[in-house]
Fold this protein.
Amino acid sequence: MIPTIAYGYQSSSSTVQTTTTYNSTTSITPTYSDATIYPDLWADVYTPTVSYTSAASLTQSDGSIGTLSIPSLDIYMSVYDGETLDNMTKGVAHFSDTSSWDGNIGLCGHNRGATYVIGDIKDLELGDIIQYTTSLGTRTYAVSLVTTISETNWSYLNATSDNRITLITCVENQSELRWCVQAVEIT
């Protein structure tokens, strides 16, 4: 079993180092001061690396950081950095603690009752296409998960070593639940 380390994760015996690479992309490598915590996993055998891209370098003239396209649902929206109500009134909001290009991109939006809504993500099927475009290019993802999660379950937003996109919205009339869709990059 290999532990999953979320971006910015720290425990009393670990630290997270970040190293800037290209295009404002940061590789995050956990290092442990006490190798006895995970002697078989961490020592010199395995050090997971996940990617994180800051949204700061992606901001466009309209204030967005990119666009989200889900052709099967006729969803075409701008993406704004920061999971605020203001951003969700303009389009889809980006969870600022998640990457904005490499790794796991976390986005959220209103379920209903607003101009821009993504409530229909519950109707996505495995394999449906999601596209995400920024100044760095366009990535295409295939839906791999459609599920409901607890309103307090943020584990699907953890940093990943693969490129994926995670969409979250409320479940109608069930305030304790959220729809969660994940899609992995295919091209």
Summary: Residues 151 and 176 are 5 Å apart (CA to CA). The first helix runs from residue 85 to 90. The first strand starts at residue 14 and ends at 20. Residues 14-53 form one domain.
